[in-house]
């Protein structure tokens, strides 16, 4: 698969599962980020999307948005990980997986970046949704942590 977004190459190199899923960045704008994956490689025995694939795509959407917000602020070497996630599976997914992570309001972004710059670490909560037939099929609220990698002096 041809890389369309810089994070696609990162996923391919560092998170092999994303290759098997067919996962890629489908969009990034001021409202948030979208990850996509086709249904076929993510099917379960019921002919719907496998819950593990759904968990992976929504979790990666939050990770990707956090990473991009940091990079867009000139912070390239931050480490990012999910610390806690609550995921609700509300309805079966029978089509392509499209996970949308909403961008927090500007004040929340500034707080997050300010914490990172002043303390070398920050955390925030994000909401990620995966829709099916105009209804929320999967909803996740997750806390993401960012910290300064050892030996770096990010600004």
Any descriptors?
single chain; 155 residues; alpha+beta; Thiol Ester Dehydrase, Chain A; 6-stranded antiparallel sheet; 4 helices; 6 strands
Task: Explain what you see.
The chain is α+β, with helices and mostly antiparallel strands and 155 residues long. The protein has one domain (15-148): Hotdog Thioesterase (Thiol Ester Dehydrase, Chain A). It is built from four helices and six strands. It has helices spanning 6-14, 17-21, 51-72, 106-119; strands at 24-29, 32-37, 78-89, 97-102, 121-132, 135-148. It has a six-stranded antiparallel beta sheet with strand order 1-2-4-5-6-3. A hairpin with a 2-residue loop joins strand 5 and strand 6 (135-148). The chain is globular, with a radius of gyration of 16 Å. The N and C termini lie far apart (34 Å).
Q: Could you give me the name of the CATH homologous superfamily? A: Hotdog Thioesterase
Helix content: 25-40%
Domain count: the total is 1
- Give the H and E element order: HHEEHEEHEE
- What is the subunit organization of this protein? single chain
Q: What is the SS-derived class?
A: alpha+beta
Q: What's the number of helices? A: 4
CATH architectural group: Roll
Strands of the largest sheet, in order across it? Answer: 1-2-4-5-6-3
CATH topology: Thiol Ester Dehydrase, Chain A
Which regions have little confidence, pLDDT < 50, spanning 5+ residues?
A: none
Average pLDDT taken over every residue: 94
Short description:
With 155 residues, this protein is an alpha+beta fold. The chain is 32% helix and 36% strand. It has a six-stranded antiparallel beta sheet.
């Amino acid at each position: 698969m041809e890389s369309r977004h810089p994070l696609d190459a990162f996923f391919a190199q560092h998170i092999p599962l994303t290759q098997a899923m067919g996962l890629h960045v489908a969009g990034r704008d001021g409202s948030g980020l979208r990850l996509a994956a086709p249904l076929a490689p993510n099917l379960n025995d019921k002919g719907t999307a496998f819950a593990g694939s759904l968990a992976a795509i929504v979790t990666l959407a939050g990770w990707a948005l956090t990473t991009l917000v940091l990079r867009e602020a000139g912070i390239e070497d931050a480490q990012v990980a999910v610390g806690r996630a609550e995921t609700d599976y509300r309805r079966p997914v029978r089509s392509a997986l499209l996970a949308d992570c909403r961008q927090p309001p500007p004040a929340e972004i500034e707080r997050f970046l300010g914490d990172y710059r002043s303390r070398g670490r920050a955390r925030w909560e994000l909401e990620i949704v995966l829709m099916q037939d105009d209804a929320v099929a999967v909803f996740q609220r997750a806390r993401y942590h960012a910290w300064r990698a050892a030996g770096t002096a990010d600004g």
